[in-house]
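Predict structure. Input: UPF0260 protein GCM10010990_31370, 168 residues.
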Amino acid sequence: MGALKDTGPDGEAFWEKPLAELTDEQWEALCDGCGQCCTHKLEDADTGEIYPTNVSCKLLDVTTARCTNYAHRKAFVPDCLQLTRETAGDLPWLPDTCAYRLRAHGKPLPEWHYLISGDRGAVHRAGVSVAGKVISEDEAGPIEAHVQIDGYVLMDAPGDDDDGDFFL
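Output follows.
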């Protein structure tokens, strides 16, 4: 692949173009490196509500929020979802700050995005990144113990002797 060009012949920044017009290289460059899409979520089977956890995919470097084997991730994590131009605006678990989601809805990138700021570390300083805030699935234990719901405290089930059942 050639060098990524920030602007086209018309002077327009590639990240301001509709997603359908981006090259594959430009598409990949939209990622802000926050790592939020690489954290596990739980879905309520009755309501469809999605609850975040602080558990990351085993391939996510929890200190940098970057995938340790992005090019071959599907070989190690077969259920890793491939974000596409068609799905970027429709996935409810993508954070509101996600560049793919923002651009799918025609919104501009935030000031901290590295394509705007020129600084890859800005995502971390803005508090958007999961770096240093998550635990790998290899170390987490029962994922239910890591669900993050404001106002709720996880408790062991009544009469439980740590069999992995939890109540919210």
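Helices lie at 24-29, 73-76, 99-104, 114-117, 122-125, 137-140.
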